[in-house]
Specification:
- Helices cover about 25% and strands about 35% of the residues.
- With about 850 residues, the chain is of the alpha+beta class.
- Strand 9 and strand 10 form a beta hairpin.
């Protein structure tokens, strides 16, 4: 379920990407006054009854907990009260610490006002780099003046032991509760589900959360949650440019944290949906599931906050408790609700037991862009979708929609008929897919004749309202387009011509032919096209997404160059939408919809391969402005340049494996800047290292690598380590820079590292009997001293370059020596662009 967005790939809060089971409240009052802090969302599945209370009654009781005025402690500097949680040590040096009132004897929270200190240092180099990126140093060394703590671990018992050891007596102070009451009332709902589920679980996975008010950093969070794949987290909520971000300073595993298996797997989805004349939908979904661990009782589903669940029932029609944005008004749901639904089973199913859940829900996820242009906004969450992982399931879709519209969907269409004022259609997936979707509109369409597959392109005859206004505007200032940096930072030259009409439907046939051509090109690298049907649909905005057998392609990709220009696109923007976006999404039919990613740290693989293949396809068109060299040059420039106000180049923002974490308040477009540009270069470098110049098929090794990935990892997850192992299986001796037939050096430097190497060369030439002896030094900067690379050097001559050889640069300075027949006028560093670098 990948996408190529001009603003963000899969635009979503970082919270839902890293903490999928969440009840999000991003801004909350922390204490009396003007202090605000963020919360990093938490939730853990797994529940069994511990009391006679129903889940909702227990939820209400936990949410209602407040500070206990009779359980207050005064801490002095000599008391040395500390908590070690993960890689952080929290010291409460001086002030007041008060516990929450217990529930059935269990204390789940505390508040602190006074003076404290936190010290934390991650071990992993990638996480150290991120700490330095946000804090200016690879360590958190910060004083704080207040804190809100919630926990299901032994925090309360540990603090009480330290209080007794320090001879601190409990006190009663009603003013503490009064001071914190308003803040606690606001904050508690954000943590209630996490505490509820862990409290009732037969296999609890303890968590600790501290929201601290840092003296220098402002509000930040310390999290240790055994339910997370990466239990330890430091971060803070920030706003930049009118947008909200959660800056993850570090998120990583801790020693002895076991990998947690998914407790449930979705085997099949049966969805029946009616879309009414006002575009709202009423739907039922039956999800066939299998319990994997046999110890859990809560299931977390994605579901748009715009949808309301009416009921969830089990196998025998019994009503099941569920939680969806509890206690929120419609306005609150739209601003701070989340897109998750949690369902509580009566008991934990036995391991490998299969069962079915039935959902009835309604709401509106179809957006109107004006001028009659519709599109599905919640493309990933218009139905209850289990979890966030790339699990593959079967889908059966029965859809009804107004007769005036045309609708396309994932899977093969089995039949379509009319039902009074509605159309009704039945789609079924032939192969497992990780997601299902649909799109609709007053479409014109054009099929592409092909024996191997069915391709049809759909587009509205009218433009969305915002774009229509752009095209009809006579005011140049109204035509400024927030163009993507993908390709070039240049704004381009805008030519204002007379008003013109444009219809996305005008491009249907030509776009369809190009998409069919791209499929045939990709098949040489990735193997046969994986689906029988491919529907291509227009979507308003500046992004694209590639669902299995269904593409969402930006309106801009349907427009002629003159209309694109008048809409405000720069030259690079026009090339981006015309040459890359549609074909990037086509490549995702293999890379993302057949080969999935293991976690957010591995999504770069599918995006990078899809984008690089799209660039290769653009190169086949022999347009001198759209060649592979042109795109690679633009990507390199994008990585090394500094944006206005930035303190570092985009290439230094963070490592590829940070995935969605690359988007932050310091780098709002970091994901796009790094994943597509650097990712494409990495795939290119692997291809170049595997090339066999002079062979009948120079790309034979590279093609074998891609086809092995598609075959071996079909309909399952591919990790970065998996990719390294597969590269090592086909690597050449020249790629073995550190011995042991290992590509660890490459992945350490390019995937887990930051920075782009810069090279310059100094040399002298001495005539001998055998020719000219060249002695020189290759200087390497911009990367760590441990960085190694094979750098091709060429002798520059009259109109051509002759290869001298490759120098393995190791450290800041590497000596080399060559003997050549002719005296070189200069030495040129990698003119064939096989290495991501800059040079003098």
């Amino acid at each position: 379920m990948p996408c190529l967005s001009i603003l963000n790939c899969r635009p979503e809060p970082a919270c839902s990407a890293l903490f999928p089971h969440a009840e999000c409240d991003y801004t909350s009052c922390m204490r009396v006054g003007v202090i605000f802090f963020s919360m990093w969302c938490l939730l853990a599945p797994g529940v069994v009854p511990a009391t006679e209370q129903s889940p909702h009654e227990l939820y209400d009781a936990i949410k209602a907990l407040r500070v206990d005025p009779s359980n207050v402690y005064r801490v002095a500097p000599a008391n040395h009260i500390q908590l070690r949680r993960g890689d952080a040590v929290l010291s409460f040096d001086e002030g007041t610490l008060a516990f929450f009132s217990p529930l059935d004897g269990q204390i789940t929270g505390a508040v602190f006002s006074g003076r404290g200190h936190v010290l934390a240092a991650p071990r992993d180099p990638v996480e150290k780099q991120q700490m330095g990126h946000f804090l200016g140093a690879p360590v958190l060394d910060q004083e704080f003046i207040s804190g809100y703590l919630r926990f299901t671990d032994d925090t309360a018992a540990e603090l009480l032991r330290q209080f007794r050891a320090a001879n601190l007596a409990v006190q009663t102070d009603a003013s503490v509760g009064a001071q914190w009451d308003s803040a606690v009332t606001q904050l508690n709902p954000s943590y209630t589900l996490r505490i509820l589920f862990d409290r009732l679980s037969p296999n609890p996975k303890p968590c600790f959360y501290a929201g601290l008010e840092g003296v220098a950093t402002g509000p930040f969070d310390v999290v240790l949650d055994a339910q997370r794949d990466e239990p330890f987290l430091l971060g803070q909520f920030r706003k930049a440019g009118g947008k909200s971000f959660y800056d993850v300073w570090t998120s990583h595993q801790v020693p002895d944290s076991p990998a947690l298996p998914a407790p449930f797997r979705a085997l099949h989805y049966s969805i029946e949906t009616t879309i009414s004349l006002n575009n709202s939908l009423d739907a039922t979904a039956s999800v066939r599931l299998r319990a994997e661990t046999g110890t859990e009782r809560v299931l977390a589903f994605q579901l748009s906050r715009a949808l309301t669940i009416d009921s969830v029932t089990g196998e025998h029609g019994e009503s099941l408790p569920f939680f969806q944005n509890e206690g929120m008004s419609l306005q609150e749901r739209s601003t701070r609700g989340n897109d998750y639904l949690d369902v509580v089973l009566p008991q934990a199913p036995a391991g490998h037991q299969e069962f079915t859940l039935h959902f009835h829900y309604r709401g509106n996820v179809i957006q109107d862009a004006g001028n009659g242009v519709l599109f599905v906004g919640a493309r990933e969450s218009w139905y209850p979708h289990l979890g966030d992982s790339a699990e593959f399931s079967g889908y059966d879709l029965l859809l009804r929609w107004p007769r005036k519209l045309r609708l396309i969907a994932t899977g093969s269409k089995l039949e379509e008929h009319e039902e009074r004022e509605y159309h009704a259609g039945h789609w079924k997936t032939e192969k497992p897919t990780s997601v299902a979707g649909f799109n609709l509109g007053e479409y014109a369409s054009a099929p592409v004749a092909s024996e191997a597959r069915s391709i049809e392109v759909y587009a509205n005859r009218e433009l969305e309202e915002d774009l229509r206004k752009r095209l009809s505007s006579q005011d140049v200032s109204a035509l400024i387009f927030p163009s993507a940096r993908l390709g070039s930072a240049s704004a381009g030259h805008l030519v204002v011509s007379s008003p013109m009409s444009a219809s996305p439907a005008d491009a249907l046939k030509q776009l369809g032919k190009e998409i069919d051509s791209s499929i045939r090109f990709y098949e040489t690298f990735s193997g046969p096209f994986p689906f029988h049907d491919l529907s291509v649909s227009q979507i308003p905005g500046t992004f694209g997404q590639g669902w299995p057998g269904l593409l969402y392609v930006s309106t801009y990709s349907f427009l002629r160059p003159e209309a694109q220009q008048r809409a405000g696109l720069s030259t690079a923007g026009q090339e981006h939408f015309t040459e890359l976006v549609p074909y990037h999404e086509v490549a995702h039919q293999w890379w993302g919809n057949v080969v999935a990613w293991s976690s957010y740290r591995d999504q770069w693989i599918d995006e990078a391969i899809a984008n690089y293949l799209a660039v290769l396809f653009a190169d086949t068109k022999k347009n001198p402005d759209h060649t592979l060299r042109v795109w690679l040059t633009r990507y390199r420039q994008q990585l090394v340049e500094k944006l206005p106000g930035a303190t570092e180049a985009a290439g230094d923002t963070g490592a590829l494996i940070l995935g969605s974490r690359l988007n932050s308040s310091k780098s709002p477009n970091g994901y796009e800047d790094i994943i597509y540009s650097k990712g494409s270069w990495i795939v290119h470098m692997l291809r170049e290292m595997l090339r066999q110049p002079g062979a009948r098929n120079p790309d034979a090794r590279f093609t074998a690598l891609l086809q092995t990935l598609v075959t071996k990892y079909a309909y399952r997850a591919l990790s970065t380590d998996d990719l390294r192992h597969e590269v090592e299986a086909v690597m050449t001796p020249g790629m073995d820079l550190e011995g042991g037939r290992s590509m660890e050096w490459f992945f350490e430097e390019w995937v887990r590292g930051t920075g782009i190497p810069h090279y310059r060369v100094e040399f002298t030439a001495h005539h001998t009997e055998k020719g000219y002896q060249i002695r020189g030094k290759l200087f390497q900067t911009g990367v760590p001293r441990s960085f190694v690379a094979s750098v091709p050097l060429y002798a520059g001559g009259a109109g051509h370059n002759a290869l001298l050889g490759a120098v393995v640069a190791a450290g800041p300075e590497t000596s080399f020596r060559f003997v050549v027949p002719n005296l070189p006028r200069k030495i040129v560093i990698d003119p064939q662009m096989t290495l991501l670098c800059t040079s003098e």
